[in-house]
Amino acid sequence: MALKLLAVACSACIGCVHSVRSTSTYHLKTAAIKYVKSMEETALTKIDRYGEVPGMNSEDITAFLTAFNEEVLERELRAEGFSRRVTATQATVVLGDLHGQLFNLLAFLRHLHDKVDMTHLSVLPASKLFICDSKLQYVFLGDYVDRGERSVETVMLLFAYKALCPSGIILLQGNHEASSANDRYGFSKEVEYKLDKRSLHSGKSMLWSHFNDAFWKLPFVAVANGMFMATHGGISPKLVQACWNKRGNFRSCLGFNTDIGSEMVWSDPHKGSGWARSPRGGEIHNFGRDIASKFLWSNGLKRLLRGHEQMAKGISTLPLDTGGEYFVQTIFSAADYVGTFCVDETNNHPLRLPAWDPEMFNGGGHSNLGGMMVVNYSAGRVNYHEYVLSGHEARKLAQEFTGAQCHHNATSTRTTPTTTTAEEMEKFTDSEKTTATEKIETEEHTISEKTTATTTQEASELQIDEGFGERTPTEDEDATNTAVQGLPWKDRFQTFFGLSLLEEHANDPETEQIELPIHCHDHLSQEEAQEHEDYVRSSLLAAEDMQFEARKIIDLQGEAAVCEAPAEASSDNCEAMARDVITLKVFTELKGSKQVLEDLERNIVAREEEVAGVVGELS
After folding, report:
1. Which H or E element spans position 313?
2. CATH no. for residue 236?
3. Is residue 331 part of a domain?
4. Within this chain, do residues 174 and 310 fall inside the same structural domain, yes or no?
5. What is the mean pLDDT of the chain?
6. Residue 20 forms part of a structural domain
7. Within this chain, do residues 293 and 397 fall inside the same structural domain, yes or no?
8. Dihedral, CA atoms, 597, 598, 601, 606, nearest 10 degrees?
9. Are residues 483 and 452 both part of a single domain?
10. Would you list the DSSP string of 433-479?
11. Does 39 or 450 have the greater pLDDT score?
């Protein structure tokens, strides 16, 4: 299974990097100050006018990433490998998956100011939010990108914080920081749409590659001696084998090889014992309570803090022993996961769909809470404080902080760009010429974005783009595809999956033989189908929020398969599609709400769009 990242070939150096010193004419800290200000204060206010945010252009971001890679990430990697020590003297702030939801990041940073005593803490001079103080340290658990409308802005803000206060923030890798994942789940499309249009018809975006160059230098684990280890996914077989009884010194066992880390980012806990196969697909193993407690004990640690799984209540705690000494805690910070900043509050759907991937956001957010944990050890004992925000609360905090408003209608507003002649340019000073040129380029860029957004959004309201690879269709298929494209989306869904789960007789035995939307060679056996149906039914009946649980099951199915080679991915993705249909069938029987079903159907179609290309390569 090709989950491995490229190995990092670098040698160890003596000593640790305590400061950032530029060796070039590029001033990294000056650029970082600009990005802190623009992403904190401006990005949300521009709604979908991305080109108007200062620094949101390919040239500036490429220059920043190049310097940031060299002056910060490479130095840390050479000194510490893929593990980091938590060094704060009083508290650690832990935030989980953000998935491009900038409003959640800003909201939690603002919320922190209300929850901790700021009297003796220093805020980064360039920021209104970020605490840069040796007494407190941030640990982010990864998955900064994909399935969100502002992945670029989220990453740039976090990288800017790191450039200005390198010892104050630890940025861990998640599974979506692998190029094989973020090429499928939205980040590459976002980069190309917002910043690097030159690459749309000429292969991969160079800027997207620069981002991924930075991502694979991020560490996989952070350790606070005697207290906790933090990672994105969890414990894997290779980690147990290599890092057992290391007293939390994972630098020595992780080294500079990504094999172990790339396995860790995909794992999840389960409530039983031993290793179990993951519903995410591939060769991923979930770890049982016994494995987690013994591994923590062997390293003198008490808790595993991790992300990777969306949680209805933002934070979930799994006790590992009867004595209440060892725990696994999952922290998911993307409140209203897959939600946009501007939503219709009557149904939680986006006011406008992000133009680079409208299908992904079409069903609205998941209405889950987002979580943040503050580990306080200032008074000689360790306390784990949990804080949660709803999507509504996070949006309100972000709106109050930035002053952003959501009434701007991007799809109905057209502006004629201003033209400046060569004769007029001659009348300007050099400074004025630069300003005028930038103004023209910004206006033209914005018009292009608005036109594309309008076209894509209108198309998404009429049909669902199948996108199943580049195979040349036959004449019969051409005729069928033409007919299907004219159907309403519900009828297209019926054609897409070979059945309609909105019909009264969704549990009719005749629907058991599911005709998948692509030429799949691997289907579920009768036993596998029944096993999944039983699992879904028991999970939904036990869930407090049945809709949330159904969407979570859909998101997990076959997720890792996009990172496999095509031959390995085909079977997993075909089986995942069959499981999705079973999940929706069971949900229909138990719930039956028309609006909820429509949202779930959109969610399934969006996820299948992500993986269809992998299977389509073999169709």
Report:
1. strand 313-319
2. 3.60.21.10
3. yes
4. yes
5. 79
6. no
7. yes
8. -140
9. no
10. HHHHHHHHHHHHHHHHHHHHHHHHHHHHHH-------SPPPPHHHHH
11. 39
How many domains would you assign to the chain? 3
| Interval 558-607: pLDDT, tens | 676 556 555 555 666 777 777 887 888 888 888 756 666 667 667 766 66
Average pLDDT of span 428-434? 41
Residue 147's beta-bridge partner residues?
Answer: none
437: which 2 tokens?
A: 């040129």
Nearby residues of 412 by Cβ (< 8 Å), 6 or more positions away: none
SS3 for 131? strand
Question: Angle at the Cα of 349 (from 454 to 458), degrees rounded to 5?
Answer: 20
How are beta strands 91-95 and 136-140 bridged, if at all? parallel
- Region of 498 on the Ramachandran plot (φ > 0 left; ψ -120 to 50 alpha; else beta): left
Closest CA to 231 of 157, 297, 186, 172: 172
Tokens of 153: 């802005």
E strand or H helix at 385: strand 383-389
- Write out the DSSP string of 332-346: B--TTTT--SSEETT
Alpha carbons 534 and 542: distance in angstroms, whole number: 12
pLDDT of 389:
98
Please say whether the beta carbons of 269 and 251 come within 8 A: no
pLDDT (average), residues 295-323:
96
pTM of structure: 0.78
Same-domain status, 177 and 302: yes
Same domain, 186 and 310: yes
pLDDT in tens, 131-171: 999 999 999 999 999 999 999 999 999 999 999 999 999 99
**Cβ count within 10 A of residue 219:** 24
Q: In whole angstroms, what is the distance from residue 388 CA to residue 330 CA?
A: 13
CA dihedral (495, 499, 501, 503) in degrees, to 10, reads 100
362 lies in the same domain as 338:
yes
Range of the domain at 54: 28-402
For the annotated catalytic residues, the residue numbers are: 176
- Judged by DSSP in three states, 80 sits in helix
CB 132 within 8 A of CB 390: no
- SS3 for 523-555 is CCCHHHHHHHHHHHHHHHHHCCCHHHHHHHHHH
Note whether residue 9 is domain-resident: no
Asked whether residue 450 falls in the same domain as residue 484, the answer is no
User: Do 547 and 439 share a structural domain?
Assistant: no
216 lies in a domain? yes
Residue 55's pLDDT is 97
Helix (H, G, I), strand (E, B) or coil at 65: helix
Does pLDDT of 492 surpass 50? no
pLDDT bracket for residue 273 (50, 70, 90): very high
